[in-house]
């Protein structure tokens, strides 16, 4: 199985997807109330012979936002899910028509780790599926702000479940993430107090960092030793890019 612990210059980084394995849950979190996060999307990714899992979130009836490193040969989206191992009547399963990663995405530093997925048909908005608002281009989440993140990623190195999990995380000052080579404060957010054992993990890539009901970040990578803050893509920086694509694909 391919290792997710990246080589230098990011020797302390771990991708938040896990190829070839089922997903589990957020570390140090709790099970989310069923369908309380109706914008959440579960991504089933086929990349050659490898199967990967990621999270994402619905920003338009035919568009999901996720991380660029979740790109694959074929992606299918599940919306309205709580337990991804069950065929819940709330679920909508929709193939992805187009994958649109940021043109300046850097695989080495994970800078510009953002991707839009155009769905093959519109999602039906209902009691289980909703959009989440995006920030404006000038908004900034201040250090000390308490945010939340959710996903179907691992609870730890060897534990997992199939229900959506959530955890509250504090936005940190950028200098707390300077241990990561390539950390860029203009395109990234430093999130989570060191040593608390609360963070997204494998399978949580692409999920939203939510503050006051608005998506402010995209889960990107964590410290290999699960001790330091996590890094999220800073959404406000990419609002012009997102709007440009949505207008072109309208």
How does this structure look, described?
- By secondary structure, this protein is mainly β.
- Helices cover 4% and strands 34% of the residues.
- Strands 1, 2, 9, 10, 11, 12, 13 and 14 form an 8-stranded antiparallel β-sheet that branches. A 6-stranded antiparallel beta barrel has the order 3-4-5-8-7-6.
- The longest helix is centred in the C-terminal third of the chain and has 10 residues.
- The chain is globular, with a radius of gyration of 16 Å.
- 44% of the residues are buried.
A few lines on this structure:
4% of the residues lie in helices and 34% in strands. The chain has one helix at residues 239-248; strands spanning 13-15, 30-31, 40-47, 50-60, 63-66, 74-79, 92-101, 115-119, 146-151, 165-170, 188-191, 208-211, 214-223, 230-234. A hairpin with a 2-residue loop joins strand 12 and strand 13 (214-223).
What is the secondary structure topology, with strand pairs?
Blueprint: E1 13-15, E2 30-31, E3 40-47, E4 50-60, E5 63-66, E6 74-79, E7 92-101, E8 115-119, E9 146-151, E10 165-170, E11 188-191, E12 208-211, E13 214-223, E14 230-234, H1 239-248
Antiparallel strand pairs: 1-13, 2-10, 3-4, 3-6, 4-5, 5-8, 6-7, 7-8, 9-10, 9-12, 11-14, 12-13, 13-14
Order of helices and strands: EEEEEEEEEEEEEEH
- Give the helix proportion (percent range): under 10%
CATH class of the largest domain: Mainly Beta
Which spans of ≥5 residues are poorly predicted at pLDDT below 50?
A: 1-26, 198-203
Rg, Cα atoms, Å: 16 Å
């Amino acid at each position: 199985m391919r290792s997710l612990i990246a080589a230098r210059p990011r020797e302390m980084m771990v991708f938040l997807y896990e190829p070839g394995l089922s997903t589990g849950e957020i570390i140090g979190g709790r099970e989310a109330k069923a369908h309380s996060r109706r914008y959440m999307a579960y991504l089933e990714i086929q990349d050659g012979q490898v199967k990967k899992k990621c999270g994402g979130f619905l920003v338009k009836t035919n568009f999901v936002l996720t991380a660029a490193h979740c790109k694959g040969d074929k992606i299918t989206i599940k919306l309205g899910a709580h337990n991804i191992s069950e065929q819940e009547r709330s679920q909508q399963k929709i193939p992805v028509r187009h994958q649109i990663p940021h043109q300046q995405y850097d695989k080495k530093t994970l800078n510009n780790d953002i991707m839009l997925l155009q769905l093959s048909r519109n999602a039906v908005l209902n009691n289980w599926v909703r959009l989440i608002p995006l920030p404006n281009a000038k908004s900034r989440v201040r250090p000390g702000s308490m945010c939340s993140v959710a996903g179907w990623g691992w609870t730890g190195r060897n534990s997992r479940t199939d229900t959506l999990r959530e955890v509250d995380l504090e936005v940190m000052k950028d200098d707390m993430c300077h241990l990561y080579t390539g950390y860029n404060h203009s395109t990234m957010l430093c999130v989570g107090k060191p040593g608390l054992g609360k963070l997204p993990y494998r399978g949580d890539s692409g999920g939203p960092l939510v503050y006051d009901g608005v998506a402010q970040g995209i889960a990107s990578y964590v410290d290999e030793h699960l001790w330091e803050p996590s890094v999220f893509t800073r959404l406000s920086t990419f609002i012009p890019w997102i709007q440009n694509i949505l207008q072109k694909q309208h």
